[in-house]
Amino acid sequence: MSYSQLTPKLFACRQSxxxxxxxxxEYGEELGNVKITPFSDGEFQPAFEESxxxxxxxIIGSTFPTADNLMxxxxxxxxxxxxxxxxxxxxxxxxxxxxxxxxxxxxxxIGAKLVANLLxxxxxxxxxxxxxxxxxxxxFFEKPVDHLYASTIFMQYIESLQLENVTIASPDxxxxxxxxxxxxxxxxxxxxxxxxxxxxxxxxxxxxxxxVEGKNVILVDDMIDTGGTLTRAADLMVERGAKSVRAICxxxxxxxxxxxxxxxxxxxxxxxxxxxxxxxxxSKIKVVSCAPLxxxxxxxxxxxxxxxxxxxx
Length: 313
Fold this sequence. Notes:
Blueprint: E1 9-12, H1 17-27, E2 34-38, E3 44-48, E4 56-60, H2 67-82, E5 87-92, H3 111-122, E6 126-130, E7 145-148, H4 151-161, E8 166-170, H5 176-186, E9 189-199, E10 202-209, E11 216-224, H6 228-239, E12 244-252, H7 258-264, E13 269-273, E14 285-288, H8 291-303
Parallel strand pairs: 1-4, 4-5, 5-6, 6-7, 8-9, 8-11, 11-12, 12-13, 13-14
Antiparallel strand pairs: 2-3, 9-10
Helix pairs in contact: 1-8, 2-3
GO cellular component, one term: cytoplasm
EC number: 2.7.6.1
Catalytic activity: D-ribose 5-phosphate + ATP = 5-phospho-alpha-D-ribose 1-diphosphate + AMP + H(+)
């Protein structure tokens, strides 16, 4: 039997265990056994409980803070490399530290580039992720990167709502490209929110570029952290006459009092994927699973077939 015919092995980091189980079920394989040995000082050591020699290995884990989640992915990659796995794919539905993609002021780190270097040094021969905060992060790697778009799963949900007079909105200037891609598919108008910040996560002023009166507005973004921008944008749009305001955010970081902000805002609903597990369930949050998308692309990677049909935008 050739190496390409060997069944791949799927393993999960602890922070993404629930998503990994869904991906494995969609893929049609059981998750491999990993034993995590903790030490009293907080260190931990992962060990594969089965052979991976000569196999393609998929290690599934989002790298949202704390840094232990990134460290667990790195240790799993290193363990697979030292166990003679033939191909090692880091399946990172959420690529953490991606907001640090450039030097936006003097004497700061470029965290996304550092993480890329660490993943490759640890043994990753391929990266699979979804909705990077900045597309250029793909160029930080010398290995293949499968950058998937959550629009392929969200668009089905949007169409199921059968909304009329839809307008796509971006919560900031940086997300205009994503908004225009959605609007092109839906043949809708686009609204851009212009905001000025006092500091990170604190908005001083926000204004709308475009009309929302009588429209069903859908805000699109790659992530939601504190929820301040989205909830303020939703409230402003309702004040300007929007019929309804929904938000689509791929990665639900939802830190601080984000859940309370969302529940108390004028958002009709917040639609997210399961790249990051929710800390609590509230009525306004709808989760659409990305597991079928990742499982399908993993199959195509194993079979060396094209994944271009997965790029809706």
